[in-house]
Amino acid sequence: MNVSRREALGLGALGALGVAGLTLPMAGSGVEAASISKLAPRNMPKPYGVKLVRPPVLPFADMEDKDGRYRLYTVTEQAGLASIVPGLKTPVFGYNAIAPGPTIRVPQNMRVKLRVRNQLPALNPISGETFNTSTHLHGSASLPQYDGYADDVAHKDDYKDYWYPNWQPARTLWYHDHNVHTTAQNAYSGLAAQYHLTDRAERELLPQGHYDVPLTITDAMFAANGSLAYDDNSHSGLWGDVILVNGRPWPVLQVKRKIYRFRVLNASIARSLRLRLSNGAPLVMVATDGGLMPKARPVADYRHAGAERYEWLVDFSQYPVGTTIDLQNLSNKNNVDYDNTNKVMRFEVVADTALPPDSAASKTLSQMPDTLVSSDAMSLTSADSTGSFYMRLERDDVTNQFQISGKSWEDVQASGHQALLTRVQPDQVQMWTVENRTGGGWFHPLHIHLVDFQIFSRNGRAPFDYERGPKDVVYVGEDETVKLLMKFTLQKGGGNTVNAGGRYMVHCHNLPHEDHDMMHQFAVGDPAVNDPILAAPCKEDYGEYPDDGWPYGSGDGSGDTADA
Ligand code: C2O
Ligand code: CU
User: How far is the CA of 517 from the centre of ligand 2 (A)?
Assistant: First the structure.
């Protein structure tokens, strides 16, 4: 039987059996159908028809407590209407009603309290489930009770205050929903946004302001009325036919003849990308999930899974005004491609005078950097490791559940959230091995909360050039095995106290996989401290917000804003 992957995935009965048993022509090799959206032709967006927009930067209130200054940011999770496809409105559910949500920009060492108010409808129309939320700041070494633990949920008309330490080096983080079993639908509905932690090194070495452009890439499929459609192919994943960048379909960005920095987040719930420039010019990789790489690495194309952040530079100075260069997606195995999923966005080189003059905060480079800065994760060597752990990513073909070493989040729930994959000591360095044993049918972007890791090896060889920087998500491709070297640092300067640590999630960041049910947890130090559900529960939102004290050690976040 020669069925296309899309046909196979679309067949309910086969879907229920699981597609693992079928021999499928794998994607990454061509288009398998024109589209999957049900939009009328006049409502179907066309590539390069709209301009790129940057999400607004979220304002904050300057606050003070006994530890010094901190910032209070507030977002309200609520319904909104987005203009994505021509002629129709798309309901979204986002932070401040926009998708992606507003960008948070914070200098290193600035303590932050993020207040998240759940004013969503009772049910998420896509999942049909109660619209509870749990907010995870992905890339932050937060305490477990502020880490978006899947079962630490806020209900409609609740709020939760999340404290973030921000002592880590500069990086592109993102905040997104992590609600148990509906993370995929909640994030797909719009609950995702970038968060930029800045520091001196990053400001010195990389473009800023106008030349520092966040790109959040997602894919979507639409119903005829313009609302988001959802089909996760028996939890294998959702592959939309429309590529959005910052919420707009295949947009165009006008650029000056200068070097630009792009902070690229793949916030697709399942799709992975293989990005390249249409003229073959290099993407100069300068930062990964955990911030600056020790050395800039030019690449022709690279594999970019969900939740990974890569920052790369493009030099437009060599091109005449009027040149267009497209950002393309060559795709990877086990994605489903449509007519236009090979396109992401377009850059159009314009005269400096065609764009507003640079603000004081804007700056770029006159040439591409070479040496950048190292980091704790990238300085580790295998000799530092005093422990190891092995993880198998697999799928139970009877229950259709994705699992980690035969275990799932249901096991964690059944244990009263006590079950652990492993337990490590604060500041311990360990080498973890992650093996994809799902028979060539799936890739898994594995995310470990709390830590930055170094990809020590990939299939026994050196990692790819572009992943030689601090990471918190690793693309574990079909039949691949990766080794990860990491230090379980809880607080700034290693100031670990007995009260730091606790339980942290580890999971696949293909969100339908995560929800069904490829997630478990590990503990750092004492698993009983900082209970992720009980230590800082949500509260009812009466518009009054009693103060809670700074929960981290005094070494975390000095309130010293010399860095601002
Ligand atoms: Cu971005 Cu546990 O997730
Ligand atoms: Cu997965």
Answer: 9
